[in-house]
Amino acid sequence: MTLFQNLRQIWPMPSAPKSIVIIGAGGIVKGAHLPAYRKWGLPVAGLYDLDVARAKTVAAEFEVAKVYESLQEALSAPGDVIFDVALPPQALGPILTKLPEGSTALIQKPLGVDAANAAELAAILKQRRITAATNFQLRFTPAMLAAEDAIARGIFGEIVELEVRLACRTPWETWPFLTELDAVEIPLHSIHYLDWIRATLGMPKKVYAKSVGHPDHPNLADARSSIVMDYGDRTRCCLSLNHTHKWGPDREDATIRIEGTKGAAIIGLGYLINYPDGAPERLEMITEGTGWQTVPLQGERMPDSFAAVMANLQRFEAGEDDRLLTAIPDSLDTMCLVDACLKSNRTGEVCAPQHAKQGSAL
Fold first, then answer.
1. In what residue span(s) does the GFO/IDH/MocA-like oxidoreductase domain sit (predicted)?
2. pLDDT per residue as tens digits for the range 221-235
């Protein structure tokens, strides 16, 4: 047995899963939330969407017994349920103000449209005593859990290099609401990497970011980004994110590279290759004195990580997990980092992220 075979890849499910009420029936619910809950045995009590016909179609596909005719009916669902609020950032506020006091909710990322809005949402959640987490599920993929475990154990030594590189085609047209946003790539895609990097390396001292559009997406504010994160003079961290590669999947790339003083890892984000069909995800690791090893993965981001982030929330509420990884205070810091990147993009300047003021958060 190699050093890497004992790394954590799977988040345990709650011993007594609670039923889930899903608010929203868009593509992410159909493509990830519901497949994840079905695979991992997390019961779904019902589904609500403004488009009731769409909700009924999705519910029928996944054998969800109840489609709520109104938001109030969904929020009044009987029993001790968990709310899965899977809505665009601009739609979160009106919903969170109506969630039952003392309830538990998983909230779609990003947490609001910017850090100021995120703080407002956090204050609402605190005032209503809602236990909440943000759906930053990238942290919960088998490959990312294994990498995090290896870093925590010191297997790679001091982390001196962290790089995210994408050259793939993201079908932005799948999400029509994106045309209404002032920024797209950083707050809706790169936010996952920023959240994970911040959780792994801490808040950077400074950031520089530049997002640009593309002729194939004239109605989008942007579709590609370059981000440099300053962690001092010993760690290089950068992200090169091209979502408009249209020259065939054979030349697409989606990788995260982690290098330390004692070892390294390469994570292949196969789910972004030839989207939506995808390619196999992969994890390769090496330490001093050994060769590269392919670590067999025990699952995939789609759908497994979506079940894992819900499991962490339910287990935390039940006292089975002592830490809620994507709790609201943690998510506020991610939103502050995103804000710094967006400010840098607007101004062309290097910006210093500020930690969130945690007094108003859960």
1. 145-265
2. 999 999 999 999 999
Residue 17 and residue 84: Cα distance in Å, rounded?
Answer: 14
Q: Which residue has the tokens 């981000």?
A: 227
Q: Are residues 148 and 244 in the same domain?
A: yes
Longest dimension (CA), the chain: 62
Question: How far apart (Å, rounded) are the C-alpha atoms in residues 184 and 189?
Answer: 8
Please report, for the domain that includes residue 288, its CATH number: 3.30.360.10
Q: Where are the alpha helices (DSSP H) in the chain?
A: 27-28, 34-39, 52-61, 71-75, 92-96, 115-127, 142-152, 185, 191-201, 306-318, 328-347
Are the CB atoms for 340 and 183 separated by under 8 Å?
no
For residues 280-306, give the mean pLDDT: 96
Burial class (CB in 10 A: 0-12, 13-18, 19+), 37: buried
Per-residue pLDDT reduced to its tens digit, 67-118: 999 999 999 999 999 999 999 999 999 999 999 999 999 999 999 999 999 9
Whether residues 321 and 265 fall in one domain: no
Burial 293-323 (b: 16+ CB within 10 A, else e): eebebebbbbbbbbbbbbbbbbbbbeeebee
Residue 359 lies in a domain: no
Give the structural domain span for 237: 142-300
Give the Cα separation of 249 and 261 in Å (integer). Answer: 33
